[in-house]
Specification:
The complex is a heterodimer of chains A (399) and B (280). Chain A is α/β, with parallel strands linked by helices and 399 residues long. Helix content of chain A is 40%, strand content 22%. Chain A is built from 18 helices and 16 strands. In chain A, strand 7, helix 9 and strand 8 form a beta-alpha-beta unit. Chain B is mostly helical. Chain B has a single domain, classed as Orthogonal Bundle (MetI-like fold). Chain B is 87% helix and 0% strand. The longest helix of chain B is centred in the N-terminal third of the chain and has 41 residues. Classes of the chains: A alpha/beta (399), B mainly alpha (280). The interface between A and B is medium-sized, with 31 and 19 residues.
């Protein structure tokens, strides 16, 4: 079941939208309609699905209709035609009260210029959504407090928006959307007004939060790098139409048309790809139980001179070379004593960019570990370079 | 240019004498008596409070909203009013100002809200306000007298017509200037229109509304003086008396009294408005 389903959604601005809609359905272009009727086609028959827990990005340049599209989803702008289903309920057919209820319970929103209430302090802003639902003061402030801590603003509860920096203001905006505990977050160019460093931090944190809280995110941006970094899937918009939907790889590898390929041709692959996308599962692993003898046997089988060692739960222990294994075998010393721990480790989300230098001055592959120190995969110099040239080799990782 | 005769003067008089007054006379009488009671009440209260106590309260208020300088000025001003023996006249003027400001805000702020929410309302309200503000103020005095007779009530009505427009305009402006994204945010989280108005739009419009209140008070004061021509008691009457007797000294006394009241009222209301500004 899709969380958000948008079908044939169209918005025409101007004096006579119905008539223009007919012309649009008959195949007239946006420019023809503007010239003949003075009506502007904002969004032209957009359709897409967003799955629960998915991070869906809509990317387009200014004037492409992306901000209109996201406002059609919660009906801040009334659609001219088409449907939006949230959890299979048609938002476009709701009456006023049902719409208000859906906005309260299902759709949180974050705005480009933050849209904070300047007359309320941070808690007042974050608790606003609960306040208008009539939630008791104590309960709503408790929930607000939790959201404030989630976005890392503890200690600023009683500050007013004009006392905060841009990045902090947007954290308040995010906390305000989180406090309502809706499944869906609508984010309209949420980070576009922030400077690049802060923007990167916010992107990282948003990804973490989204993973932790399992939100479905509909994110609007004009920045392709941001779209590629954040989106599980990306929809590219031009002149009110969605021209392609796909994962970042699909869009990079198979641009649907010239417009998209022009867009993506300057993308720096080293920024787009991260460790997870180029790593591969090491061919051999051994468990502790086996002892040096088993290890030597295994290295012989795969024809390698070293092997990565993990414990029963996949926790990374170290690198065992054939020389050390033989030494341990001969001198009957425990294997843990001879493990080489001096290998480079990294996280799955580290951009390839940051690994190029490391790869150059280590003779062993880089080890990719998750937060619990479990071995996810290894990256050799070869895979970095091939990743840069060919794209990722994710298939090998999926097993 | 007299190509055809337009007897506007005659028509108006016939309309008012033969239809308007017989039909609505009673209604106006009851409005008049309510207002009259209101003005009398405020005047009685103001005159009942001993001048020393009144001055003390006003000085404290000035201190709190405008600081030490304003407090000193208020003290000296009230001392001046008492010393030139126009205390009673000042209180009469003040009570007309208070009542007409109250009525102006009571009508003006809701109308301002309505016209901010609805463009159609605004398209009716705006020309009406233009008409009210550009018509020479003396012209109001005639129908006011006709409907409410000579005295304080007519003064309040004429003052209301003159002083209400800024309250309407500034309320309208304040609400319309609330940033679009803030409104969108409020709606996106599921506010009803009432919640939007009371929790977001009005609080953010307060500084603008306070500027309107300040303007309304200032205009009330100037009109309350002119209204002495239709028998409103107060400082205006003092000045009028001075004119008819060519008594330059009395004129100066009355004039300065008005200036003192105006400055005190202006600074106090501005101080309150700025306090609101700082808070947000």
């Amino acid at each position: 079941m899709s969380k958000i389903k948008v079908s044939e959604l169209t918005k025409i601005f101007g004096p006579n939208p119905k008539q223009s809609l007919e012309r649009l359905n008959k195949g007239s272009s946006k420019d023809e309609i503007l010239a003949d009727t003075g009506n502007t086609v904002g969004v032209n028959q957009a359709s897409f699905d967003v799955k629960a827990g998915e991070f869906f990005v809509i990317m387009g340049l200014s004037g492409s209709g992306k901000s209109t599209l996201i406002r059609l989803v919660n009906r801040l702008i009334e659609p001219t035609s088409g449907h939006v289903y949230i959890d299979d309920e048609d938002i476009t057919n709701m009456n006023k009260n049902e719409l208000i209820e859906a906005r309260r319970k299902k759709l949180g929103m974050v705005f480009q210029n933050f849209g904070l209430f300047p007359h309320r302090n941070v808690v007042g802003n974050v608790a606003y959504g609960l306040e208008i639902q009539g939630v008791e003061k104590q309960e709503r402030e408790q929930k607000a407090q939790k959201a404030i801590e989630d976005v890392g603003l503890k200690g600023y509860e009683s500050s007013f928006p004009n006392e905060l920096s841009g990045g902090m203001q947007q954290r308040v905006g995010l906390a305000r959307a989180l406090a309502n505990d809706t499944d869906i977050l609508l984010m309209d160019e949420a980070f576009s007004a922030l400077d690049p460093l802060i923007r990167k931090d916010m992107q990282d944190e948003l990804l973490k939060l989204q993973k932790k809280l399992g939100k479905t995110v509909l994110f609007i941006t004009h920045d392709l790098d941001e779209a590629l970094k954040l989106g599980d899937r990306i929809a590219i918009m031009k002149d009110g139409q969605i021209v392609q939907i796909g994962s970042s790889e699909e869009i990079l590898e198979n641009p649907a048309n010239e417009y998209v390929s022009n867009f993506v041709k300057d993308v720096d692959r080293s920024k787009v790809l991260d460790a997870e996308q180029v790593m591969r599962r090491p061919e051999v692993l051994t468990t502790y139980k086996g002892g040096p003898r088993t290890a030597i046997k295994k290295m012989e089988d795969v024809g390698a001179s070293s092997i990565f060692v993990v414990d029963r739960d996949d926790h990374f222990q170290g690198l065992l070379t054939i020389d050390d294994a033989i030494r341990a075998y001969k001198e009957e010393i425990p294997m843990e004593k001879v493990l080489n721990q001096d290998v480079h480790t990294t996280t799955p989300t580290t951009p390839l960019n940051d690994l190029i230098g490391v790869a150059a001055d280590t003779k062993y592959p880089i080890v990719v570990l998750d937060e619990e120190q479990k071995l996810l995969g290894i990256i050799s110099r070869v895979s970095i370079l091939s990743g840069l040239v060919l794209g990722k080799e994710k298939d090998e990782v999926t097993n | 240019m007299n190509y055809f005769e337009l007897p506007l003067e005659q028509w108006t008089n016939t309309f008012v004498d033969d239809w308007f007054l017989p039909t609505f006379g009673n209604a106006f009488d009851s409005i008049g008596s309510v207002l009259n009671a209101f003005v009398d009440l405020v005047t009685d209260v103001l005159l009942f409070i001993p001048p020393e106590l009144f001055t003390l309260l006003l000085v404290i208020l000035s201190w709190r909203v405008g600081g030490k300088g304003l407090a000193v000025f208020t003290f000296l001003g009230m001392l001046f009013i008492g010393s030139v023996d126009i205390w009673e006249e000042s209180m009469h003027t003040l009570s007309i100002v208070i009542v007409s400001t109250f009525v102006s805000l009571l009508v003006g702020i809701p109308v301002g809200i309505l016209s901010a929410m609805n463009n159609r309302v605004q398209s009716v309200v705006r020309p009406t306000l233009d008409f009210m503000q550009t018509l020479p103020s003396f012209v109001y005095l005639i129908p006011a007298v006709l409907l409410f007779g000579l005295g304080g009530v007519s003064a309040v009505i004429a003052t209301f017509i003159f002083a209400a427009p800024p309250a309407v305009r500034m309320t309208n402006l304040g609400i319309r200037h609330v940033p679009k994204e803030v409104i969108e945010a409020s709606k996106a989280f599921g506010s009803t229109s009432k919640q939007l108005l009371f929790k977001v739009q009005l609080p953010l419009a307060v500084p603008s509304i306070m500027a309107g209140v300040n303007q309304t008070i200032m205009l009330s004061l100037s009109m309350a003086v002119i209204a002495s021509m239709i028998g409103a008691p107060g400082l205006g009457a003092t000045v009028l008396q001075a004119i008819s007797r060519v008594n330059i000294g009395l004129g100066l006394v009355g004039g300065l009294g008005i200036v003192v009241l105006a400055i005190i009222l202006d600074r106090i209301t501005q101080g309150i408005g700025q306090g609101q500004n700082n808070k947000s």
